[in-house]
Every structure is written in C-alpha cells, then in structure tokens.
C-alpha cells in the first residue's frame, strides 16, 4: 500500500466517523401512519427508506425468540441462568463480597426485552435458544424474509451499531403487527409499566402509554443519535369493532420531537380520516358474461371484507355518490368456471382516487353448456358478434362498473363508542394542540398493468 492509498483510507475513515457523529435532522425523519383495518397508509414520509435498525432490533429478537420457542417446545416458565451478581455484606474491614446466583424465566426475559430492549435479556435468550449469535441472526433474517420485510437486514440480535443492519418504517409496521397477531400474550407485556428481572426493576421505555389509554404498545426507544417508536392505537367503535392505527416514527431528533410527531399523526388519522366497509366477504359485486356455459353470466364478488380509509369531510357529504366500484378482468370468461377462482381485480375508488384493490373471485360454478351451445358461442366469437354485445375481443382487459355501490351498513365504521373513545380523542386533542395536522394522505400505487380498459354501466 503506497502513501496516497493510506492517506485516502485515513481520510475516508475520518469522514465516516464525522458523518456518524452528526445529529439527525428533522428533515431526515421517517414516518408512517397505517390503518390496520383497510391496510392503507394515511400519511407517509420516507416510509420505504432503509435506515439503521439498532433501536428497534429488539422487536425482531423478540419475534425470533418466540418462533424458536415454538419450534423447540420451550415453555415460558423455563428457567435461564444469568450472570451471577456480586453482593457486598458488612462495612469497613468486615465487608465481604460474595457471588449470588441469578436466574429468570423465559417469559420474564421476553417481557423485559419488549419493555426496554434489555441487553441482558437479549443475550440470555440468544444463548438459550440457539447455538450462537450467528445462528440466531440467521433465524431473524429468515423470519424477516418470510414476513416480507424488504428493507430489513440483521447482523446481530443486540443493539450494536452496524451500518449494515437496516430496516424501514413500512417493515417495522408489518413486524409489529405480526408480533401482536402471532403472539397475543405480547399485548399484556407491551402495556406493563414496570417488571422485576432477576433482582432488578425493568421500566417500560414507551412513555406514550401514560399519555393516552388508547395507546396499547408497541415500542419506544430514545438514544443519543435518534429517537424511534412503533405505536399501536386502538379505539372501540359503536358497532363493537376497534379502530386500529399504527404509527411508526424513526430518526426523530429527541424524545419531545418523537412524541409530538407520533401524537400529531394519530390525531390526524383519528380526527380527519375514517374507515368504512364497502363489501362483506363473499358479497356479490357484479354479474359477468360467460361463453360456452350453461348460464349466460356468473356472479363475481370478494373473498374478504373490503374496507376503505378516506378523508372524513367528503365522507359526510353524500358518500355513496363519491363511491365507484369496478371489476377488471380478462374477457371473455369461458366455461367451465369454478367457484373461488380469481378472474381479475375489484377496484374501489372514492372521490376520484383508488381506495382499495382486491381479488375478484367467482361466487358460483358454471359448467360447460351443450355441444350446440358451445359451437354457437364459438361462431359468434369468431365472427366478432360479441363486439355488438359490449364484450371485448379475447385477450383484452375489460372493466365492468357497478353504478350503484353503497357503503354497507353492517360494515360501516362510523362514530367511535362514547366513553373510552371520547377520552382517547380528548387525549389526542390535548397532545396535538400545538402540533397541527400531519401530512396529507398518500395514495398507494395500484399493482398490475392494465392492457386495455373499457366501461359498461349496469
């Protein structure tokens, strides 16, 4: 290595160290507000950007630990030996130091890890559930891939600074939801304020729990370089459903900036947006024409409940007139057709913007018609007579428009239930009085490329 190369490496190392020492600017902040009912982003800023994952690595360490417990049959009550503590007895010349053994159950370690990202808990769980740190990290990355975390890479189960260890706000929202969904017992741990761990007290770092009863988790961390949080907000509705919002804030300047931004996002989502039902599962959306079958058409609908999250103001002003539902499919449909098969997409738009896109599935079987019926349809198709019947030629996409969609009353999620809901709204109003509304809703890019779209009113 010559002198110039050596000097270059030294300069590069110095610049890298200086960059790491720079304070995080507010402009670099990463945020996401997600409605967990409709799966739509209400607001987002750099949500898909890969950022350092140190502060929130505890969430995946926890998830991977619980996955390994299930695979290995490890019980929550299993005891794990910890590093012994040194205790001094007596004073002066008579003082004696002795070693006292320490232990904790697996459940206690998991709870401490979620509450504060406790390093001792992370290391004890890693040693208990895997051969070594590398093996445990491999499980973390395996689970990240299985959950579809596209920007997340782990190099260690511990909160050790490493530029190669990254995540994103979108990935963290998926991980946090999976943690609560796959391991319901975590919900109680996330709301625990303090807990004992082998003779010491662990305090929950998610102080947002103290500011609103509707905050039910998940994780908050304030470090020297940045402050991060993944917050779950749950509020009861009048019909028994629960309004569920997930706020993710990464790289905030400090704890105050973190808390104000999180409550600003939640306030915007709760006051200015609403989630309503359009269709229930197996609901009929349209009847589409069929060739060569015993019936001339087939019922098409949804295989799931269809919810949309929209701005509250236009929702209160003639909502059904702003709603548009379209079935996009490859025409023509040809028998035999089987119930449950996907034939295209159902696109729901509100106020001129796409609000949801779900699979369009067949709600009934259509067997093949008779030989003569099939021959007649084949001839009509070959001669192009179906063009006169508003059916496009083969291999073209077609849009069937439902001109009279309505927001379903049983699925409609309007005003929250009084009591807890009003208290939560009051909390948010108080916390966000000086923060103002957050960013405007973002539109998710629809998937797929339509070849050609025509329209036919029913």
UniProtKB/TrEMBL annotation:
Keywords: Carboxypeptidase, Cell shape, Cell wall biogenesis/degradation, Hydrolase, Peptidoglycan synthesis, Protease, Signal
Pathway assigned in UniProt: Cell wall biogenesis; peptidoglycan biosynthesis
Domain Peptidase S11 D-Ala-D-Ala carboxypeptidase A C-terminal: 273-368
Source domain of life: Bacteria
GO MF annotations in UniProt: serine-type D-Ala-D-Ala carboxypeptidase activity
Enzyme Commission number: 3.4.16.4
Annotated family: Belongs to the peptidase S11 family.
Organism: Sutterella parvirubra YIT 11816
Protein's GO biological process: cell wall organization; peptidoglycan biosynthetic process; proteolysis; regulation of cell shape
Record carries keyword NADP: no
Compositional bias annotation for Low complexity: 413-423
Region span, Disordered: 390-458
Entry protein name: serine-type D-Ala-D-Ala carboxypeptidase
Transmembrane annotation, as ranges: none
Catalytic reaction annotation: Preferential cleavage: (Ac)2-L-Lys-D-Ala-|-D-Ala. Also transpeptidation of peptidyl-alanyl moieties that are N-acyl substituents of D-alanine
Position of the signal peptide: 1-26
InterPro entries on file: Beta-lactam/transpept-like, Peniciliin-bd_prot_C_sf, Peptidase_S11, Peptidase_S11_C, Peptidase_S11_C_sf, Peptidase_S11_N
Catalytic EC class: hydrolase
Biased composition (Basic and acidic residues): 449-458
Function comment: Removes C-terminal D-alanyl residues from sugar-peptide cell wall precursors.
